[in-house]
């Protein structure tokens, strides 16, 4: 029986993979009663910011036992179930996907009253970069000077999108990626779909770039199955040339991971083709290490400069992943450019 994969609000410090430096910092601050009034947890998507935020709320209201997985205090149990009265959560809602000013006003009103169940009230602002100008202005005073019984925690993967007035009033803590080998070990322990295959676990960990949430998302969207389809599509593309670029783009666009998922798989593949050429004896550097023979066979047929250009073309498309509704159009353009590069 594999250990369960916890939802973000179910985590405590003991169950969070990585973030060791941040956890040590928060323990020290809480023990000395010197936790900043407003914290900004930032880092790349899927690194574990939200889980750390919920775990921190537990420790604030249940110190020191709240960092243990076996803690059964009312505060820890209620936070895990989403029914803790002294935790006020604000996040994007509605058709615009923004944090509405009405939510900000309600949160301020609730935060002003004394704690009902715990030591402190906590205002948790998820996806804080999605505050519009009105919401940011409404929360500015609260973030700058919350009530003495309260703390504010903002969570975002895009701190640069927050107004400077908000950022300057927060103590920022970066949530870091973890080592890929450590993540692969964790995936093998928790994810049955990997069937104990370390090569597959390592591939997912490397593609997720050390982000546990991203790794789980990739597996949930059928990454490993889609990789096989992607490699078949690319084999057809390189064999048949431009005649196959539209059907190849269509096949790649059908994946559950959308444009971002297709680009990640393409980037990993062309990166490995380049590695197989410049460092043929360093198979440990490959993301698709189980495809070594196919990489060597195809890599020998493509000019080295063409592989570098193809990789650059894929990298240039990543900025479009969140802005383009039709992934097939982007992939068609990409494959045309890749085709030109690899035949140069």
What does this structure look like?
The protein has two domains: 8-174, 3-Layer(aba) Sandwich (Rossmann fold), CATH 3.40.50; 221-342, Zinc Finger, Delta Prime, domain 3. 51% of the residues lie in helices and 7% in strands. The chain has 15 helices and five strands. A five-stranded parallel sheet has the order 2-3-4-1-5, with helices on both faces. It is elongated, with a radius of gyration of 23 Å.
Strand order of the largest sheet: 2-3-4-1-5
CATH domain topology of the largest domain: Rossmann fold
CATH superfamily of the largest domain: P-loop containing nucleotide triphosphate hydrolases
- Radius of gyration equals 23 Å
Question: Topology, please?
Answer:
Blueprint: H1 20-31, E1 38-42, H2 49-61, H3 74-81, E2 87-90, H4 101-112, E3 121-125, H5 133-144, E4 150-156, H6 164-167, E5 171-174, H7 180-190, H8 198-207, H9 212-220, H10 223-240, H11 245-253, H12 258-278, H13 292-299, H14 304-317, H15 327-342
Parallel strand pairs: 1-4, 1-5, 2-3, 3-4
Helix pairs in contact: 1-2, 2-3, 4-5, 7-8, 10-11, 10-12, 11-15, 12-13, 12-14, 14-15
């Amino acid at each position: 029986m594999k250990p369960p994969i916890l939802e973000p609000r179910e985590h405590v410090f003991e169950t969070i993979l990585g973030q060791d430096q941040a956890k040590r910092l928060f323990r020290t601050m809480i023990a000395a009663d010197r936790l900043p009034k407003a914290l900004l947890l930032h880092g790349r998507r899927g690194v574990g910011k939200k889980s750390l935020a919920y775990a921190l709320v537990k420790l604030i209201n249940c110190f020191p036992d709240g960092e243990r997985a076996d803690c059964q205090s009312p505060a820890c149990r209620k936070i895990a179930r989403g029914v803790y009265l002294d935790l006020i959560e604000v996040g994007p809602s509605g058709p615009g996907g923004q944090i509405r000013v009405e939510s900000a006003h309600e949160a301020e009103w609730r935060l002003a009253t004394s704690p009902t169940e715990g030591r402190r009230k906590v205002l948790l602002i998820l996806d804080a970069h999605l505050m519009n100008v009105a919401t940011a202005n409404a929360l500015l005073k609260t973030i700058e000077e919350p009530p003495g019984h309260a703390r504010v925690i903002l969570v975002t993967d895009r701190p640069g999108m927050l107004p400077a007035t908000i950022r300057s009033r927060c103590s920022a803590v970066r949530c870091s990626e973890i080592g890929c080998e450590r993540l692969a070990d964790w995936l093998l322990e928790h994810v049955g779909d990997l069937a104990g295959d370390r090569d597959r676990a390592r591939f997912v960990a490397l593609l997720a770039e050390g982000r546990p949430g991203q790794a789980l998302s990739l597996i949930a969207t059928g990454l490993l199955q889609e990789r096989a389809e992607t490699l078949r599509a690319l084999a057809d593309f390189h064999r048949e040339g431009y005649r196959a670029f539209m059907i190849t783009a269509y096949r790649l666009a059908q994946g559950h991971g959308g444009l971002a998922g297709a680009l990640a798989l393409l980037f990993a593949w062309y990166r490995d083709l380049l590695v197989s050429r410049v460092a043929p004896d360093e198979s440990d550097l490959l993301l698709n290490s189980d495809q070594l023979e196919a990489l060597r066979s195809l890599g020998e047929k493509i000019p080295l400069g063409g592989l570098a250009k193809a990789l650059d073309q894929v990298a240039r498309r990543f900025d479009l992943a969140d802005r383009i509704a039709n992934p097939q159009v982007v992939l068609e353009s990409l494959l045309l450019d890749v085709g030109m590069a690899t035949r140069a």
